[in-house]
Amino acid sequence: MHLVSVIQRGVWAVLLWPNLLASSVPLDCREEQGILSRCPSISQEKLLDRVIEHAELIYRVSEESCSLYEDMFIPLQFQRNQVGYACITKTLPVPSSKNEIQQISDKWLLHSVLMLVQSWIEPLVYLQTSLDRYNAAPEMLLNKTKWVSEKLISLEQGVVVLIKKMLDEGMLTINHSEQGLLQNGVQPQMLESVMRDYTLLSCFKKDAHKMEAFLKLLKCRQTDRYNCS
Amino acid sequence: GAMMRKVILLLLLLCFTAHTRGKLHSPPAKPGLTSCRSPEKETFTCWWKPGSDGGLPTTHALYYRKESSETVYECPDYHTAGENSCFFNKNDTSIWVNYNITVVATNALGRAFSDPVEIDVVYIVKPNPPEKVTVTVMEDKGWPFLRVSWEPPHKADTRSGWITLIYELRVKLEEEIDWEMHLAGQQKMFNIFSLRSGGKYLVEVRCKPDHGFWSEWSSTSYIKVPDYFHREKSTWILITVFSTFTFLILMWLLHMNRHNLKHCILPPVPGPKIKGFDKQLLKNGKSNQIFSALVVPDFPPATSSNYEDFQVEYLEVYVRREQELVLEESKDLHNSCLKSESSTSDCDSGRGSCDSHTLLMAKCREAKEGERQTDRECSPMRTEAQRRLKDWEEEALNYAHAGIVSLEMSSGRVKTWPSVFSPLPRYSSSPLDQQSSLQMAKQLSLSTSSYLTQPGHSTKEALGQSYWDLCLSSKQPHLLNPPTPVCRELQAHSDVNISSIGHKRAPAGPRSPALHTTEYVEVQRVDNKDTLLLQPVVQGCGRMGGCFQMPHGEVYSKVKGVDSDNVLLLQREGMGEDRCPCVEQETNEVTGSCHKSCTVSTTQKPSGCIYTAVPVRDEMATMANGYVDTATMCTLHTC
């Protein structure tokens, strides 16, 4: 009987041997592998490129939305110039001058980008709701703004991953400052929704451009440290 | 027993295990993840293929893990994408991280894990086919073409640039098998040219993102190209028709003129155009016949206006034997004359023997006799005057001077060297007034010319023979138009090749026929055919006896010979106011001595002194006995 049991176990083992190898072993990732690749993670360069591309897209779409809104709701030029000083993200410790940007480290670049992104998620949602209340808001404008808000969230995720990869930092808690930027940044004279929305759009456009610039600078620094500006 | 039972059990176990795979319940087999696809880079779906379920109801579950995170999530949506699929929506899809996906099959007896798969969403994008593919037929200057337009799949966000798609379309005729592929890039419209008139086309479009897979082909669009006529084709048809007509007309014209063309392109080879030349004779090889056939019957011309002024009497010229023989063969009328004379000719080289006085005399007599015969025979060819001249000649012969070397030639006999003849001096005492000096001269000239123009032709001589009947007769002056005695002095010398005869001066004035038989013929001129035109001279040397004597000098000229240029050299004898030289035969002439220098006179007396230099044939022979000596040559100039 002992032999029989041993034989049985052996037979079972033989029959079930493929299952023993069920757990996969992660293989080394290669850059060029396509579908069903066995790479455990996306490489850093690839990730950075994607983030930059993402940021570019967001900027482009925001620019289109802004110009669309301008043409429709802000006909007079003098009104367009008023929004320059009312951006809600003024208070953020984001470098704004070229000198500052050149001196800042990679880490701070990334953190700045992340701050920007995170600070705009909420306002965009607000903007979306505001635009929905319009009577004559064009469909395209609404779609664009909606798209932008969605992509912004995605961008945030990407930047987080990027930070984790580049800086080997742990998962940063997405700290949405609920300080009510809107409440702080809204000028009293900007109660008019149109102007408010317009301000939001244009400010966001600027910040999106800033994000894109930071990321590109970061990339440039990755390849050639001393020639970037 | 126990051993056998164990063995049996083992065998049974093996059988069961073998059976288990097909029929008995068992844990499920390992499933396999077939593919994961994202249509717009915002969501994606994964499909798996389950293994055998082991006979028991088996459930499958998909678990995924995000990159560098140990948290295992289960598929949020098993139903949206259909059977054995897992759908990841927008919130669950991140382009920043890779996904590690595993499918697990579970049944009552166990579990089965599929091989895990790493997914990068960006690289698994396979868009939907393009939508709203429209094909229209458009026209471009009469040539139709297809315009294909489409839209990207509605899910792909190409507007914002989230996905960049490139398109490709394919076209084929309905009856064809192979497709024609066209890459359209990022544009959403494409033109297709070079269509077949009346053909039915099938068009399909597909797209692909930057990194990803080609989509499926869109649904086929059908289009029929309307029939159109090639404008170019009609032009070509017109051109072809016109050119065919033109070509046919040209061919017809060529056909009508083919003979002319043949003459133009391939001109016929000219044959020999010698009058009387018979090719057949040449082929037969009888040269004699050929040459005889070439004899021009009417040559020298019987009448010539140039000679009308002359009254010519007979001239007798000796001819060489061989020539006589040839002459015999000639078909002319003169042949009869020739033949009659053949016996009397002596054609040895030393013609001088013939020319000796005695011989001449003898010959003259014979000739005279023969002449009579020939006269009779040739009567049709002679005028009465000629006959009379001949009679006179006979008389003259009787009175031949010793000092006179005269060669009397019987009629019909021409004495010639190759193409040279010298007329015999005639002594004629009979008045020759009535002789037609012109006629004589004519005859002389004619015969001369005959010799001259056809050197070596005996026929010529034969021709001349008849004319050369030196039948000067002074007795028949009336026969001659100008009543001038014809003084003819012809020196016929066998040794002398004299192509022309110098002036023959007819002694002026009547002479006693018995004593002065010299007749002078004046060479009127030589025409371009080397014809010596003789004119009986009636002039100052008419003294009967003086013509042949030195005193006649001024009017005489002696044929001295012929120079190398075939020029008849005449020696002017003596002088006289009348500067017509005449050829005189002096018996006392020494060979080679010119009594007088020839007076080259370019002026012509109206009486018709003609100096001619006539080309003489090649042979030169010195004369003997005072005949014209080639050694001393005096050239005469034509008037």
UniProtKB/TrEMBL annotation, chain B:
One of its GO terms (molecular function) is metal ion binding. It comes from the Eukaryota. It is a single-pass type I membrane protein. Keywords: Disulfide bond, Glycoprotein, Membrane, Metal-binding, Receptor, Repeat, Signal, Transmembrane, Transmembrane helix, Zinc. CDD domains: FN3. One of its GO terms (cellular component) is external side of plasma membrane. The keyword Repeat applies. InterPro entries: FN3_dom, FN3_sf, Growth/epo_recpt_lig-bind, Ig-like_fold, Long_hematopoietin_rcpt_CS. It is found in: Membrane. Residues 27-128, 129-228 form the Fibronectin type-III domain. Belongs to the type I cytokine receptor family. Type 1 subfamily. This is Prolactin receptor. It comes from Cyclopterus lumpus (Lumpsucker). The lineage of its organism: Eukaryota, Metazoa, Chordata, Craniata, Vertebrata.
